Amino acid sequence: MSKLKNKNSNQNKKPFPKDPKFQEAFKQFNDKNYKEALENFKQFLEKNENSFEALFYLGCCYENSNMNQLAIAQFKKALNIEPKDEDTNIHLIKLYQSQNQIKAALASLNQFLSFSNDNHKAYEILEELDLKEKSIIQEVTRKKTEKMIPLIITLARINYQKQQYTKSQSFLNNILKVDSKNVSVLLLLIKVLKPQNKIPQIINSYQKLITIEPDNHLHYYHLGKFFERNEQFSDAISNFENSIKINKNFTESHLHLGNIYDEQGDFQKAIEYWSVAIKYRPHSLQLLNDLGSAYYQTGDIEKAIEFLQKAIQIDPKFAPSYYNIGCIYDEQNDYEKACEFYQKSIECDPQNPDTFTNLAIAFENKGDIQKAIETLKNYLKQNLGHFDILYHLGSIYMKNHHLDDSLMCFLKCVEMDDKNFQVFDNIARIKFVQKKYSESFEFFEKSLKSNPESIDQAYSCALELKKMNKIDYSIQLLQIIIKYNPNSVDSLFQLALNKMEKNQFKEAKFYLEKVSVLNHSYPLLEEKLKEVRSKKK
Q1: H or E stretch including 275?
Q2: Mean of all residue pLDDT scores within the chain
Q3: Please, are residues 82 and 59 in contact by the beta-carbon 8 Å criterion?
Q4: Mean pLDDT, rounded, for 6-24
Q5: How many CB atoms lie within 10 A of CB 138?
Q6: Closest by Cα among 448, 374, 371, 440 to 403
Q7: What is the pLDDT of residues 74-116, one digit of tens each?
Q8: pLDDT tens digit sequence for 426-452
Q9: Domain 215-315 CATH superfamily
């Protein structure tokens, strides 16, 4: 067991006695001459029986001389004078432990915790006590539970920090059996319940807090936040509003209400609550930005730009507001202004891919294809593997007939996401234009496998093949479509027509009859059925 050689200077002790006898004893103590020091401290105490320092060091002398019962007696006397002295309490607790006096050790630790918030120190002591979990629980949950509350709270905190939530919860529930209105315990219990996702118990604990302290707006606020995180928005709104009824100037509840209504698309309500919050946080960039966005959603462009500009005036490097102003001009088809603000946003935040994408699209809408391509390539210089940027770059190349460059971008996209049907469709279309029909069909099949409803591109190519009189290829592609979408009436009908072109009337009849089952009023169906039946005869 480690021994303390001198007192903690932060404990606000009285100055050491200047008495020669004490000074001699203290020197002997430091020199580890405990027998001589012990006699001199005893002589000093004959005339100064209430000297805390002498009692403490006499206890240390006994302790270092393995006279533990005498040491305990001296430390207890010292604590009668200064009951909150940390060093003396710790010495006493460890002595009790060395004598296997577990009840006394726990009682002293509990006393220590009643005036100390040092959970780390308590944890160290409990580790040194080396007590089994069962023996602790048995001791602290006896009839003395109420008296042992500080110790139980510490045990609960220690188990919470060790992520042993069930044990922590058990300790806290024991306290609540004798003190059901202990607010600090209920708050800690909520923290313990959250990682376990015990939603009914969490709500119940919050409701108990509200019953105990009905005028505490924070309880309603925290319950509101809990409901919001669990997407129980109606309950969240109710609790945030109750919080505001108690404290109408509580900004956080106004912010959260604004956020909920904004998410629900009720932008007027969002503005109502955020407008209160901005009075108390006039320099909140995020709030100004959110208000600007909400006003834009209501169609009030002037107000939207006003709030976004306010954010920029406070912080000229606040990228989100430049971005949002760019979006406003973009949607108004003012691409010149849109490009200006997107570029300013990029200057402030060169890592946001959305801004680069929007700027490229704005350049494209202006007709400046080269700048659109350069914008996306500039982003890729620093972020090689960004799917959306590669996809947009591939799309621009494709629209402007740079097929090889486009194909390279889309193939890189496949490396990052091998389930994206739109990428497969685009690759298939490029291969189709390059007259590489077999390769094109492979990618159309991958697209349909990822999303059986994605038939538009493949169906369009099948019609083009028929116009080019490439009937066999058209049939092959339509069969791939029907493999993944057997109820595609248009594909079945076109396949039947192709079979008729090839004079394969029996098969044509088979597909037309399938169409009849799915849609008996399909245009030209009866006419074609009559034709194949007559040909068959």
Answers
A1: helix 267-280
A2: 89
A3: no
A4: 62
A5: 10
A6: 440
A7: 999 999 999 888 888 888 988 887 887 877 877 787 777 777 6
A8: 999 999 999 999 999 999 999 999 999
A9: Tetratricopeptide repeat domain (1.25.40.10)
Residue 506, burial from CB neighbour count under 10 angstroms (0-12, 13-18, 19+): exposed
Residues 291-320 as b/e (b if ≥16 CB within 10 A, e otherwise) read bbbbbbbeebeebbbebbebbbeeeeebbb
Name the residue with tokens 């009914």.
Answer: 200
Rounded Cα distance, 376 and 381, in Å:
9
Q: Which pLDDT value is given to residue 4? A: 31
For 453-489, b/e burial (b = at least 16 CB within 10 A) is: ebbebbbebbeebbeeebeebbbbbbebbbebbeebb
Instruction: Give domain limits for the chain.
Output: 215-315
Give CA separation, 90 vs 34, 96, 100, 258, in Å. 20, 10, 15, 52
Beta carbons within 10 angstroms of residue 279's beta carbon: 10
pLDDT exceeds cutoff 50 at 176:
yes
The H-assigned helical ranges of 162-216 are: 165-178, 183-193, 199-212
* Secondary structure (DSSP) of 380-447: HHH-TT-HHHHHHHHHHHHHTT-HHHHHHHHHHHHHH-TT-HHHHHHHHHHHHHTT-HHHHHHHHHHH
Tokens 């971005």, residue located: 323
Q: Smallest Cα–Cα separation from 259: which of 228, 222, 298?
A: 228
Longest Cα pair distance anywhere in the chain, in angstroms? 135
pLDDT, residue 108, reads: 81
Predicted confidence band of residue 158 (pLDDT cuts 50, 70, 90): confident
* The token pair that represents 505 in the structure block: 């009337």
More confident residue, 179 or 445: 445
Residue pointed to by tokens 């092959």: 476
Q: Which residues contact 265 (CB under 8 A, 6 or more apart)?
A: 297
pLDDT tens, 111-148?
A: 777 776 655 666 666 655 555 444 555 555 454 555 66
Summarize the confidence of residues 221-229 as an average pLDDT.
95
